[in-house]
Amino acid sequence: xxxxxxxxxxxxxxxxxxxxxxxxxxxxQVITEIDEEMIRAWVKDLIIVKTFVxxxxxxxxxxxVAAHTGKFYRTSDPEEEAKGxxxxxxxxxxxxxxxxYESKQMLPENIGVQxxxxxxxxxxINIFFDEF
Length: 132
Prior knowledge:
Radius of gyration: 21 Å
Strand order of the largest sheet: 1-2-3-4-5
Distance between the termini: 41 Å
């Protein structure tokens, strides 16, 4: 298979190498500009804004899936959350993950509950799950 790609695009490796070298050079130039305040702002955004938004997504997804299945929902308590459970649809524990999580097979995490996948779109979120 590699021969076919290189046969049609013999410059592919060289082009990729050049792009990577450019990114590394850019990184070298900006790394010295990273300071405490920049890190603080990034952490604040990560912890406060993104976590808050993520939790709101979770509840909205639980509510929508419950309505679709005609079941009740509830968010998890801290003990359940520690096990990777984000909530329940009826009596079924579920974990809610972005669709990109599905392709990350190398992750060592084994949640052991049904996963509901979502991805953000311009005007909302799309949800994917197996029926209960």
